[in-house]
């Protein structure tokens, strides 16, 4: 499928999705929101087993393209209903990312700001180039966080650091993001796509249903008591125990060979 603001490719089970508005640092537009939703649907429909997300050019994503809000510089322009836009476009997009039935990896090149940073953090694993940075820029334009920013930051780095990122609106370099646990790993710029691609291929060859269960359990855990979480784990194990990948894993262990998982 052809897109105006994205490029996509499927190879070896890895669906690579590249934000492709480099002249605007891949900033989000309404058209891009719609195309991202369509691309995620395509990734599922084509049987992908991992998603690799990155940005074209020198930046990952600068957040919302404020050129679409240029008219608001005129005080006579009526205020927009930002809540409606979030509920109809951006919120469903973030939920769709989290609901994908396979692992997601973000390769952050350059700046990831605002909703762009949140979009990266919605992935299961985030690799960032040494030159990358994460900026929660909402306060700079008089807004609060969106795209799940407050949720992801609070869960990843705790309230104190999350508050600093949101209130001070200062960029967090990749090395600091790694030290804080905001991302999985920092890599050298020249190695970013190679490292992220290798990780995506590794996950694409793995037990997809097992990965899906782990991701769902992690999402449930913060709001669940121990007894309930134990039951969620038991239910997941019961389902996974009926799958072909579990039998393959046992057989590979007993025969001392590498498992050939099919994702079932």
Strand segment tally? 9
* Rg over CA atoms: 19 Å
- CATH class division of the largest domain: Alpha Beta
CATH H-level homologous superfamily name of the largest domain: 2-enoyl-CoA Hydratase, Chain A, domain 1
**CATH topology annotation of the largest domain:** 2-enoyl-CoA Hydratase, Chain A, domain 1
Characterize the structure shown.
With 264 residues, the chain is of the alpha/beta class. It has two domains: 6-204, 2-enoyl-CoA Hydratase, Chain A, domain 1; 208-254. 45% of the residues lie in helices and 15% in strands. It has helices at 30-45, 82-99, 115-121, 149-168, 174-180, 192-204, 208-220, 226-240, 244-254, and strands at residues 6-11, 14-19, 50-55, 104-108, 111-113, 125-129, 133-135, 172-173, 185-187. The strands form two sheets. It has a six-stranded mixed sheet, with helices on both faces. Strands 5-7-8 form a three-stranded mixed sheet. Strand 3, helix 2 and strand 4 form a beta-alpha-beta unit. Helix 1 (30-45) packs parallel to helix 2 (82-99) and helix 7 (208-220) packs antiparallel against helix 8. The protein is globular and about 70 Å long. The two termini are 26 Å apart.
Summarize the structure.
The protein has 264 residues and is α/β, with parallel strands linked by helices. It is built from nine helices and nine strands. Helix 2 (82-99) links the parallel strand 3 (50-55) and strand 4 (104-108).
Helix and strand layout, with pairings?
Layout: E1 6-11, E2 14-19, H1 30-45, E3 50-55, H2 82-99, E4 104-108, E5 111-113, H3 115-121, E6 125-129, E7 133-135, H4 149-168, E8 172-173, H5 174-180, E9 185-187, H6 192-204, H7 208-220, H8 226-240, H9 244-254
Parallel strand pairs: 2-3, 3-4, 4-6, 5-7, 6-9
Antiparallel strand pairs: 1-2, 7-8
Helix pairs in contact: 1-2, 7-8
């Amino acid at each position: 499928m052809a897109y105006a603001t994205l490029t996509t490719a499927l190879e070896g089970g890895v669906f690579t999705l590249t934000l492709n508005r480099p002249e605007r640092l891949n900033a989000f537009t309404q058209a891009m929101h719609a195309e991202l939703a369509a691309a995620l649907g395509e990734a599922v429909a084509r049987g992908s087993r991992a998603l690799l997300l990155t940005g074209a050019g020198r930046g990952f994503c600068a957040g919302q393209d404020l050129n679409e809000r240029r008219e608001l510089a005129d005080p006579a322009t009526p205020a927009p209903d930002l809540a409606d836009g979030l509920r109809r476009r951006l919120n469903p997009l973030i939920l769709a990312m989290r609901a994908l039935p396979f692992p997601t990896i973000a390769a952050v090149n350059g700046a990831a700001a605002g909703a762009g940073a949140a979009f990266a953090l919605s992935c299961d694993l985030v690799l960032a180039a040494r030159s990358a940075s994460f900026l929660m820029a909402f306060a700079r334009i008089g807004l609060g966080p969106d795209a799940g920013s407050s949720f992801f930051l609070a869960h990843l780095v705790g309230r104190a650091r999350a508050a600093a990122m949101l209130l001070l609106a200062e960029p967090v370099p990749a090395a600091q993001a790694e030290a804080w646990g905001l991302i999985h790993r920092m890599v050298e710029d020249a190695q970013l796509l190679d490292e992220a691609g290798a990780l995506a291929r590794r996950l694409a060859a793995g037990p997809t249903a097992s990965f899906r269960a782990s991701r769902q359990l992690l999402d449930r855990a913060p709001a669940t008591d121990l007894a309930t979480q134990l039951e969620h784990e038991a239910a997941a194990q019961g389902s996974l125990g009926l799958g072909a990948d579990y039998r393959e894993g046992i057989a590979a262990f007993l025969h001392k060979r590498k498992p050939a998982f099919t994702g079932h």
